[in-house]
Amino acid sequence: DGKSYKWFMHKELHEVPRKIKEQIMMPQEDLDSFVKTILEAERIFITAAGTAFYAALAGKFLISNFGGPYVEAILCSEFIDTLPNMPENSVVIAVSQSGETADTIEAIRYAREKHGAKICSIVNVVGSSLTRYSDEVIITTAGLEIAVASQKAYCTQVSALTLIALRIAELKETYSVEEIKKFRDALLKTVDIAENILIEEGKIREIGEKISNETNIYFLARGISTSAALEGALKLKEIAYIHTEAYAAGESKHGPIALIEEGFPCIFIAPPDATYSRLIGNIMEMKSRGAKIISVVADFDENVTEISDYTIRIPIENNKYAIATSIVPFVLTLQLMAYFVSDFKGLDPDKPKNLAKSVTVK
Ligand code: F6R
């Protein structure tokens, strides 16, 4: 875009609108044969590691939220131990930026060679090992990602998974033709939303500055946003070295609330979806024990904003189509926030210590 950036991570985050646009415009034929293979299976699994796993988790929710079949998400490092007796006629959707992650390759080879599963992969690197072991491949449009922590790759993975979920909904007729079109239009609008988030990134930077001295932070959400909380927490942990924990907000009272004291920061991902009013209950539980509430909300939000110390507002429209397709804008915001915190702390966001771009050991 002609601008110069201090770090690759920041440059690559600014590529997100263009990259997700390319993904959303991907050839229909590639999507069709991928989805056909998924729908022919009796059991559907989705597997990946790290950030790619959080994209996979979002995919699982997207497919079920749009009325599709149950998808079981399993970390690739846990795949074999979770499924010593893998059911026949299964399909495994594998998600990976590099296509070389050893745990991912091991899981899908096990599924394919020992149990005859079909492998459908969503991969960024053309010609990688994962593409060679797969029956169907969707190539993500992120292009070369240099920063070690995945961000634009994540955004394209989730855009691809949204397309898959919508195509399944279309084939299963869980929504009318007109409604499917509205969801698709809303998905395309995430490109402009991402652009607007980046134009207004100074606001996210301000919140980043406020949390940059924290040593512990909880990330909490419900439903599909739990996957966003997990990704937000991982990014902040790996590039800003803050101890973060993410979990489903309903779990708060089953243990983690014990740590809450005056000023303990809790970041709530609070889109106005079916989880909203229950999430408010969880926010109140934390607030009444003194937690500092930082929330990521829709532009038009009022209720969560009222009970929060700080909010980051996501410029989405107030309709069910925009809300159902808003996961990428929410996560992009959390990734940007992690980037700003890292930069504030004078760290190198591109090369976090102890991490490698592609993990080829089990
Ligand atoms: C985190 C991150 C890692 C990778 C994980 C899987 O920011 O980048 O968690 O997502 O190692 O890598 P791929 O996607 O190459 O399989």
Automatic annotation (TrEMBL):
<dbReference type="GO" id="GO:0097367">
    <property type="term" value="F:carbohydrate derivative binding"/>
</dbReference>
<keyword id="KW-0032">Aminotransferase</keyword>
<comment type="function">
    <text>Catalyzes the first step in hexosamine metabolism, converting fructose-6P into glucosamine-6P using glutamine as a nitrogen source.</text>
</comment>
<dbReference type="GO" id="GO:0004360">
    <property type="term" value="F:glutamine-fructose-6-phosphate transaminase (isomerizing) activity"/>
</dbReference>
<keyword id="KW-0315">Glutamine amidotransferase</keyword>
<dbReference type="GO" id="GO:0006047">
    <property type="term" value="P:UDP-N-acetylglucosamine metabolic process"/>
</dbReference>
<protein>
    <recommendedName>
        <fullName>Glutamine--fructose-6-phosphate aminotransferase [isomerizing]</fullName>
        <ecNumber>2.6.1.16</ecNumber>
    </recommendedName>
</protein>
<keyword id="KW-0677">Repeat</keyword>
<dbReference type="GO" id="GO:0006487">
    <property type="term" value="P:protein N-linked glycosylation"/>
</dbReference>
<keyword id="KW-0808">Transferase</keyword>
<dbReference type="GO" id="GO:0006002">
    <property type="term" value="P:fructose 6-phosphate metabolic process"/>
</dbReference>
